[in-house]
Design brief:
single chain, mainly alpha, 0% strand
Length: 155
Protein backbone atom coordinates (compact mmCIF):
# COMPACT_ATOMS: atom_id res chain seq x y z
CA UNK A 1 0.00 0.00 0.00
CA UNK A 2 2.91 2.37 0.60
CA UNK A 3 4.11 1.76 -2.95
CA UNK A 4 0.69 2.77 -4.26
CA UNK A 5 0.73 5.89 -2.11
CA UNK A 6 4.27 6.68 -3.31
CA UNK A 7 3.27 6.29 -6.96
CA UNK A 8 0.20 8.48 -6.44
CA UNK A 9 2.30 11.15 -4.74
CA UNK A 10 4.79 11.14 -7.62
CA UNK A 11 2.02 11.55 -10.18
CA UNK A 12 0.49 14.37 -8.13
CA UNK A 13 3.89 16.01 -7.64
CA UNK A 14 4.53 15.94 -11.37
CA UNK A 15 1.12 17.33 -12.33
CA UNK A 16 0.66 19.94 -9.55
CA UNK A 17 3.82 20.43 -7.47
CA UNK A 18 2.64 23.60 -5.73
CA UNK A 19 -0.56 21.84 -4.64
CA UNK A 20 1.52 19.02 -3.14
CA UNK A 21 3.71 21.50 -1.26
CA UNK A 22 0.76 23.56 0.03
CA UNK A 23 -1.19 20.49 1.06
CA UNK A 24 1.82 19.07 2.91
CA UNK A 25 2.11 22.33 4.84
CA UNK A 26 -1.58 22.86 5.58
CA UNK A 27 -3.28 19.47 5.68
CA UNK A 28 -0.75 17.85 8.01
CA UNK A 29 -1.12 20.42 10.76
CA UNK A 30 -4.89 20.54 10.42
CA UNK A 31 -5.15 16.74 10.64
CA UNK A 32 -2.93 16.71 13.72
CA UNK A 33 -5.18 19.27 15.40
CA UNK A 34 -8.35 17.38 14.46
CA UNK A 35 -6.93 14.02 15.56
CA UNK A 36 -5.68 15.52 18.81
CA UNK A 37 -9.09 16.99 19.53
CA UNK A 38 -10.79 13.72 18.64
CA UNK A 39 -8.48 11.70 20.87
CA UNK A 40 -8.91 14.15 23.72
CA UNK A 41 -12.69 14.13 23.41
CA UNK A 42 -12.74 10.34 23.03
CA UNK A 43 -10.62 9.93 26.12
CA UNK A 44 -12.78 12.29 28.11
CA UNK A 45 -16.02 10.61 27.00
CA UNK A 46 -14.67 7.08 27.53
CA UNK A 47 -13.35 7.83 31.00
CA UNK A 48 -16.40 9.80 32.03
CA UNK A 49 -14.12 12.53 33.33
CA UNK A 50 -14.91 16.09 32.52
CA UNK A 51 -11.89 18.35 32.45
CA UNK A 52 -12.01 22.09 32.10
CA UNK A 53 -11.66 23.60 28.68
CA UNK A 54 -8.08 24.66 29.46
CA UNK A 55 -6.59 21.45 28.07
CA UNK A 56 -8.68 21.73 24.91
CA UNK A 57 -7.76 25.38 24.43
CA UNK A 58 -4.10 24.58 25.03
CA UNK A 59 -4.18 21.88 22.35
CA UNK A 60 -5.85 24.21 19.90
CA UNK A 61 -3.37 26.99 20.70
CA UNK A 62 -0.36 24.72 20.18
CA UNK A 63 -1.75 23.38 16.89
CA UNK A 64 -2.57 26.86 15.63
CA UNK A 65 0.84 28.15 16.69
CA UNK A 66 2.61 25.34 14.83
CA UNK A 67 0.44 26.03 11.80
CA UNK A 68 1.24 29.77 11.87
CA UNK A 69 4.97 29.23 12.40
CA UNK A 70 5.05 26.79 9.50
CA UNK A 71 3.29 29.19 7.17
CA UNK A 72 5.30 32.22 8.28
CA UNK A 73 8.64 30.46 7.96
CA UNK A 74 8.02 28.52 4.74
CA UNK A 75 5.76 30.92 2.83
CA UNK A 76 8.72 32.59 1.05
CA UNK A 77 10.20 29.23 0.09
CA UNK A 78 7.07 27.61 -1.35
CA UNK A 79 7.83 28.47 -5.02
CA UNK A 80 11.33 27.01 -4.62
CA UNK A 81 9.97 23.90 -2.89
CA UNK A 82 7.42 23.48 -5.70
CA UNK A 83 10.20 23.60 -8.32
CA UNK A 84 12.29 21.09 -6.38
CA UNK A 85 9.25 18.83 -6.06
CA UNK A 86 8.60 19.07 -9.81
CA UNK A 87 12.24 18.24 -10.67
CA UNK A 88 12.33 15.27 -8.30
CA UNK A 89 9.04 13.97 -9.70
CA UNK A 90 10.44 14.28 -13.25
CA UNK A 91 13.56 12.32 -12.29
CA UNK A 92 11.52 9.58 -10.65
CA UNK A 93 9.15 9.33 -13.61
CA UNK A 94 12.10 9.12 -16.04
CA UNK A 95 13.82 6.47 -13.90
CA UNK A 96 11.14 4.18 -12.42
CA UNK A 97 13.84 2.11 -10.74
CA UNK A 98 13.87 4.86 -8.11
CA UNK A 99 10.65 3.28 -6.82
CA UNK A 100 12.74 0.38 -5.56
CA UNK A 101 14.32 2.80 -3.09
CA UNK A 102 10.85 3.37 -1.65
CA UNK A 103 10.24 -0.38 -1.47
CA UNK A 104 13.57 -0.98 0.26
CA UNK A 105 12.94 1.86 2.71
CA UNK A 106 9.47 0.55 3.48
CA UNK A 107 10.82 -2.94 4.07
CA UNK A 108 13.56 -1.68 6.38
CA UNK A 109 11.10 0.48 8.32
CA UNK A 110 8.76 -2.50 8.75
CA UNK A 111 11.60 -4.75 9.92
CA UNK A 112 12.79 -2.04 12.33
CA UNK A 113 9.30 -1.60 13.79
CA UNK A 114 8.85 -5.37 14.18
CA UNK A 115 12.25 -5.83 15.86
CA UNK A 116 11.73 -2.94 18.27
CA UNK A 117 8.16 -4.08 18.98
CA UNK A 118 9.42 -7.53 19.94
CA UNK A 119 12.13 -5.99 22.12
CA UNK A 120 9.61 -3.76 23.92
CA UNK A 121 7.23 -6.70 24.37
CA UNK A 122 10.04 -8.77 25.90
CA UNK A 123 10.92 -5.93 28.28
CA UNK A 124 7.30 -5.53 29.35
CA UNK A 125 6.89 -9.30 29.86
CA UNK A 126 10.02 -9.31 32.02
CA UNK A 127 8.71 -6.40 34.10
CA UNK A 128 5.33 -8.09 34.59
CA UNK A 129 6.98 -11.30 35.88
CA UNK A 130 8.87 -9.50 38.64
CA UNK A 131 7.23 -9.69 42.05
CA UNK A 132 9.00 -6.72 43.66
CA UNK A 133 6.83 -3.88 44.91
CA UNK A 134 8.91 -1.51 42.77
CA UNK A 135 9.96 -3.70 39.81
CA UNK A 136 11.13 -0.85 37.57
CA UNK A 137 14.28 0.93 38.66
CA UNK A 138 15.27 4.35 37.42
CA UNK A 139 18.03 2.83 35.29
CA UNK A 140 15.60 0.43 33.63
CA UNK A 141 13.15 3.25 32.98
CA UNK A 142 15.93 5.40 31.48
CA UNK A 143 16.98 2.51 29.23
CA UNK A 144 13.36 1.95 28.18
CA UNK A 145 12.89 5.64 27.34
CA UNK A 146 16.20 5.59 25.46
CA UNK A 147 14.86 2.63 23.49
CA UNK A 148 11.70 4.56 22.65
CA UNK A 149 13.77 7.49 21.39
CA UNK A 150 15.86 5.07 19.33
CA UNK A 151 12.71 3.48 17.91
CA UNK A 152 11.15 6.74 16.76
CA UNK A 153 14.47 8.10 15.54
CA UNK A 154 14.99 4.95 13.47
CA UNK A 155 11.60 5.24 11.80
Amino acid sequence: SSMIACAALIVMAHRAPSCVVWSSLIVGHCLVMVLGLGLLLGLLLAAGVFVSADALLFLLAVGALCFCVCLCCYRRHIPFMAEVTHVVADVIEEHPCMMTVSLIGTSIAFAWAAAMGLAFAAIMCDWVKQEDPNPISNLEMACFLGGLVTFFWGL
